[in-house]
Design brief:
The protein is an alpha+beta fold. It contains four helices and five strands, in the order αββαβαββα. It has a single domain, classed as 3-Layer(aba) Sandwich (Cytidine Deaminase, domain 2), CATH 3.40.140.10.
Length: 130
């Protein structure tokens, strides 16, 4: 699938976001190396600490279905610049999709591609737990 098609899938997923408090809707797609797509949207609750981001929904959905190897993670929101993953999502991406390309996009057609290490340099990870 081409990058623009993946961004469009993330935009479709964004439309299902439950962002009744922040009104900041985010959509994401986790692409497995086997070619399967897992979509996610942010889901807010009144206790903000329990809110989950679109990227984590997509990645956790994939993991719960047995996927463990990702080629790309796409994230999109209605922002001026591209939408970057938050710190918690960067950590999850570093742990579960360390080789994936991270496509950060917005609704205006702009996108940038990163490696997880570019988004979270000097990341804490499993190597630090040994």
């Amino acid at each position: 699938m081409d990058i623009n098609d993946l961004i469009q899938k993330a935009i479709e997923s964004r439309s299902r976001a439950r962002a009744m408090y922040s009104n900041f809707q985010v959509g994401a797609v986790a692409v497995s190396r086997s070619g399967r797509l897992y979509t996610g949207c942010n889901i807010e609750v009144s206790s903000y600490g329990l809110t989950i981001c679109a990227e984590r929904v997509a990645i956790f959905k994939a993991i719960s279905e047995g996927e463990h190897d990702f080629s790309a993670i796409i994230v999109v929101a209605d922002t001026e610049a591209v939408c970057y993953p938050c710190g918690a999502c960067r950590q999850v991406i570093t742990d579960y999709a360390p080789q994936a390309k991270i496509v950060c996009a917005n609704l205006k057609g702009r996108s940038e591609i990163f490696n997880p290490s570019e988004l979270l340099p000097h990341a804490f990870g499993s190597k630090d737990l040994k």
